[in-house]
Amino acid sequence: MRFLTWWFRIVGIVNLVLGALWLPFLSAPRLELSIPGWDAPIPGTAYRGFLDYTLLFGLDLLILGVFLIIASFRPEQSRILAWLAITLSVVRGILDDVYMIAAGYPLPSMLAFIVLHLAIIVTGLLALRAAARPGQRRSS
């Protein structure tokens, strides 16, 4: 269970950091990095809508991060949450990154996120597998 415990904690912290970076007061100054060639007026409707969306995305990541850290205290009872985080890394992670690459977003940053998502997926599957082995339960 130790591997799964630490996986929950590390992936939880990663989600907290990424979630915080998408809060509007931190994402607004990085607008040109997020969307190269932004051509809508600042401030304007599109700009405000983008910041509203990033707030929602950031809160989503923050909530997931908090729940993953909480799950680290009871990993044997929280495996379904690991599966959720892994599935989100496939769908909201890799599939979305591939879509973003196809849409013309910068390749290096998208590839970096694909690597991050792959690391979360692979280590999560390994942690779940290790936790399922006989003798891996923590004694109370």
Characterization of this structure:
This protein has about 140 residues and is mainly alpha-helical. It starts with a helix and ends in an 8-residue tail after the last helix. The protein is about 75% helix and about 0% strand. The chain is elongated, with a radius of gyration of 17 Å. The protein has one domain (about 1-130).
Topology:
Layout: H1 2-21, H2 24-27, H3 31-34, H4 45-71, H5 79-102, H6 107-132
Helix pairs in contact: 1-4, 1-6, 4-5, 5-6
DSSP helix fraction? over 70%
Write down the oligomeric state: single chain
Strand content: under 5%
The coarse overall form would be elongated
The averaged pLDDT comes out at 92
Series of H and E elements: HHHHHH
Number of strands: 0
Helical segment count? 6
How many domains make up the coordinates?
A: 1
* Spans of at least 5 consecutive residues with low confidence: none
Biggest sheet statistics: none
- How far apart the termini lie comes to 13 Å
Report Rg: 17 Å
Helix and strand content put the structural class at mainly alpha
Protein name: BphX-like protein
InterPro entries: BphX (IPR009310)
Transmembrane segments: 7-25, 53-73, 80-105, 111-132
Organism: Compostimonas suwonensis
Question: Can you summarize this structure?
Answer:
The protein has helices at 2-21, 24-27, 31-34, 45-71, 79-102, 107-132. By secondary structure, it is mainly alpha-helical. The mean pLDDT is 92.
List keywords for this structure.
140 residues; mainly alpha; 75% helix; 0% strand; BphX; transmembrane helix; BphX-like protein; membrane; transmembrane
